[in-house]
Amino acid sequence: LGRENLDAIRETIARHEIDARLENTGQLLVANEPHQVPWLHEAAAQARQLGWNAELLDADQMRAEVHSPRYLGGLVQHDGEALVDPARLVWRSEEHT
Fold first, then answer.
1. What Cα–Cα distance (Å) separates residue 82 from each residue in 6, 25, 74, 85?
2. Cβ proximity of 56 and 75 under 8 Å
3. DSSP letters for the chain
């Protein structure tokens, strides 16, 4: 249902030519503690089973991504998350009224 909802938002924005500055951001989950690393592996497997594009990052890859030694691993879900400018989402230009 989440995928259907996001697809509907994208489609509505495109159909109505709304300049909401839609940005497909993805999501980054991180492990700060050793016991959290297996959770990322489980979450990645579940995401992939549902058809999402999920990529595991080891500690070195996380450091390259966020420049911090604090993270022991990460999970990037490339799809399924987006941001819009909420004011632009509801704003209507004169030409569309």
1. 8, 5, 19, 10
2. yes
3. -HHHHHHHHHHHHHHTT-----EE--EEEEE-SGGGHHHHHHHHHHHHHTT--EEEEEHHHHHHHH--TT-SEEEEE-SS-EE--HHHHH---GGG-
Round to whole Å and give the CA distance between 69 and 43: 22
Residues 21-43: pLDDT tens digits?
A: 999 888 999 999 999 999 999 99
Mean pLDDT of the chain: 89
pLDDT tens digits, residue range 72-95? 999 999 888 899 998 987 876 555
Cα distance between residue 60 and residue 87, in whole Å: 38
